[in-house]
Design goal:
Elements: H1 2-34, H2 51-75, H3 81-105, H4 112-136, H5 139-158
Helix pairs in contact: 2-3, 2-5, 3-4, 4-5
Length: 167
Amino acid sequence: MASDSVSNNSLKLIHTNRNKFISSTLLLTSAALLTRIEPALCKVGEGSLPESATVFFKIIQTQKDWTAIGDTVRNRNDISNDEWKNIQLFLRKFYQMGDAMNSMSKNLLSPKREEAMKIVEQIKIEVKSLDKLANEKSKNEFLMAHESIQKKMGDFVTLFQDVPDEL
């Protein structure tokens, strides 16, 4: 009889613990479903990065877009009037990027600062002259000027690399 009483007590304890577990699980599940949890998002380009990092990202993106435009002009013979007009629109945005590039240049120490500003001025002059070539649809002349600007963009970005050559 004593063992029956121990078994009954054990069953009551198990039953009680199971009921507590189920009720607490239901309570936590209900609370989780009723509570709205907002995801943690980082709005890149909308203030979450320092301004200089955002500007540098835009410069790199412009460089990539510039490479793509060169590839398109180089590899296609059937560039439409509308595409040439789109290239001219891009050239205007590219010209305005010169201001952002100048502001980035101010963060460099001499003599890199002066070199960067000189490159930016050269790029702006060449981009301005490219508008006329795009308007005239002068593919070969456009590509020669494109290569010159491409090299200058690479030189500009290289000025921001602080890793020593020997590494």
